[in-house]
Write a structure and sequence with these properties.
alpha/beta; two-stranded antiparallel ribbon
C-alpha cells in the first residue's frame, strides 16, 4: 500500500490553498497526527474539522480516521529517514567490519533516494541546466558545501557558472544581473535563511528559472 506522504506528494498540486496548509502541517508533524483529532488540527490551523475530513478524502482516504490509521501503520513499519540513518549509524561496530557497515549505510540511503525522488523533476532540472545562459549557484552556511561541490563539477563541464557564496557567506551583488534565460540553483535546508529567500524572490521577479535543493517539497523554500 502506498504510504501517506507519497500520496500527499502525488496529490499536492491539485489541492486548494487551505488543503495545502493542512498537508504542510501533516508533513511537519507526521508522528503527532495519530494522537490528534480533526478538531485539534483545525484549531491549530484556524480551520474547521470538516476541512480536515475533506482534505483526507481529497488525497484518497474515506475520512480523517482512515487517514490517521494509515499514518499509524506507516510509522510502525517505516522510520522517518533521519531516524533510520541514526539507527544504522548506532549499529556500526567498532572493529574491522566498520568500513563495510558504513558502505552498507550509504547503499541503503542511495536506495531510499532513488525510491523517493521524482525522476520527472530530475529530467526538468537537467533541461533547465542545459538551456541556461548563465547559472547562479547559491548556498549559505552549511549549504555552501553543496554549492562548492556543484561548482567544481559544473566548471569541469564548461557551464557558465556564477557562485554567489564566498566561504559560506551570501553576496547579493553577484545576483543583481540575473535575468530571463538564466538559472538560479539554490541550496537551503532548515533553518532556512532570509538571504536565500530574498535571492529566490529576486530571481523570480527577474523571470529567471529556479532549481531548489532542499529537504521537502513542502518547505518554505519550495
Amino acid at each position: 500500500m502506498e504510504d501517506v506522504l507519497s500520496k500527499l506528494k502525488k496529490e499536492y498540486s491539485n489541492l486548494t490553498d487551505s488543503q495545502k496548509k493542512i498537508g504542510k502541517y501533516l508533513f511537519d508533524n507526521f508522528e503527532e497526527i495519530p494522537f490528534m483529532s480533526a478538531s485539534q488540527i483545525g484549531e491549530k490551523l484556524d480551520l474547521s474539522d470538516v476541512s480536515i475530513i475533506r482534505f483526507s478524502r481529497s488525497i484518497g482516504f474515506k475520512g480523517y480516521t482512515d487517514l490517521k490509521e494509515k499514518i499509524k501503520m506507516d510509522i510502525t513499519t517505516k522510520y522517518r529517514a533521519d531516524k533510520r540513518i541514526d539507527k544504522s549509524l548506532k549499529r556500526i561496530k567498532k572493529n574491522n567490519e566498520q568500513i563495510k557497515e558504513i558502505t552498507n549505510v550509504d547503499i541503503v540511503n542511495l536506495k531510499e533516494f532513488y525510491k523517493n525522488i521524482d525522476l520527472e523533476d530530475i529530467k526538468k532540472a537537467t533541461e533547465l541546466v542545459h538551456k541556461a545562459k548563465s547559472i547562479y549557484l547559491l548556498g549559505a552556511r552549511s549549504s555552501s558545501i553543496v554549492i562548492d561541490l556543484l561548482s567544481y563539477h559544473m566548471r569541469r563541464m564548461s557551464f557558465d557558472i556564477r557562485p554567489v557564496t564566498e566561504g559560506g557567506l551570501f553576496n547579493p551583488e553577484k545576483l543583481l544581473n540575473i535575468k530571463k534565460g538564466d538559472l538560479l540553483i539554490a541550496s537551503c535546508f532548515p533553518r532556512y535563511t532570509k538571504d536565500t529567500k530574498k535571492a529566490i524572490d529576486l530571481a523570480k521577479s527577474n523571470d529567471a528559472d529556479i532549481i531548489c535543493i532542499t529537504d521537502s517539497k513542502f518547505s518554505e523554500i519550495s
